[in-house]
Design brief:
- The chain is an alpha+beta fold and 183 residues long.
- It has one domain (48-182).
- It contains 3 helices and 7 strands.
- It has helices spanning 3-26, 89-110, 121-134, and strands at 54-62, 72-74, 138-139, 142-143, 154-165, 169-177, 181-182.
- The strands form 2 sheets. Strands 1, 2, 5, 6 and 7 form a 5-stranded antiparallel β-sheet that branches. Strands 3-4 form a two-stranded antiparallel sheet.
- The mean pLDDT is 82.
Length: 183
Amino acid sequence: MSGHTAITALLVLLYFVLLTWSLRRRGPELKGPWWFFLRAFFPNWKFFHAVGHAPRLYVRGRDAQGHWAEFQQVYPRLPRRLSHVLHNPAVNLALTQQNLVDHLAGDINALPEGGDIREKVSYQLVARLAHEALAGGSWGDTPMLAQPMPLCSAWQFELRMEHPDLGQGMRTALMLRSPEMSA
């Protein structure tokens, strides 16, 4: 076992010890601002309540001549292998990042009237994820974007709610479009 693997295993074990201790101390309801930082460990279970729209992240860049590329979806569709049953860091990272997009959609829905979503941590993290995708980021050997983007002078991201319409294609509703950001 390498040093990084041992440290990771120790941190995961420490996390679950802390979680168990906290649940015994406070009961089954988790409250407090520090739990927000552990949201990546908790999947978004809302998909069990109803089948409906799912949030998807799209990005685009503007080249040096000022032309905007088409929006491309950033969504994990990684090949499955038998070895992934035991060790699957690329897929785990991709699913954690999609979970972050789900949390941003929830934060947008919970935003009070007149609130600014750009102040939320989930917005800032999704903006970093979008920028990483445009910069050529990947999940293991799989690139985050189907078509690589040329060097961008500016970029944007969108959060769209998508619902597959059986036989009809895809129904899409724009939930958020970021302002133009310089690269």
